[in-house]
Write a sequence for this structure.
């Protein structure tokens, strides 16, 4: 499991002073990019190899509001892996409170063709 910290910016809040719901999808992406960078599989490296990672599905459940200057700690983990796709799970916390949970499902392509994940990146998709 990896942790990423996002500090809510003023522009991410709506007129009520609450973090706008659309930003949680961006925060999940930030956490995912950070995790991949730390594992040595950053987007720049993969794209230089001709590999891209389209998003197939995103889900987010909003539990409690956050506001300007709040720090959201995002835990990310590999939830599921199949031959061609993988799903990350996310838990966002402010202090001890869960503020959101989410999932994103992806696949990898090279030159427009799906990659078999475990063949191309065996260490990245170990679920044990």
């Amino acid at each position: 499991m990896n942790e990423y910290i996002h500090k809510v910016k003023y522009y991410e809040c709506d007129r009520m002073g609450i973090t706008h719901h659309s930003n949680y999808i961006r925060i999940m992406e930030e956490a995912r990019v950070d995790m991949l960078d730390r594992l040595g599989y950053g987007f720049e490296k993969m794209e230089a190899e001709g590999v891209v990672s389209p998003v197939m599905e995103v889900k987010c459940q909003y539990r409690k509001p956050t506001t300007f200057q709040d720090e959201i700690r995002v835990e990310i983990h590999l939830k599921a892996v199949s031959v061609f796709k993988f799903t990350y799970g996310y838990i966002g916390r402010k202090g001890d409170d869960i503020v959101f949970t989410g999932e994103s499902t992806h696949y990898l392509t090279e030159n427009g063709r799906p990659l078999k994940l475990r063949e191309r990146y065996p260490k990245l998709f170990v679920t044990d």
Q: What stands out?
A: Residues 116 and 122 are 10 Å apart (CA to CA). The longest helix spans residues 22-39. The two ends are 12 Å apart (CA to CA). The mean pLDDT is 91.
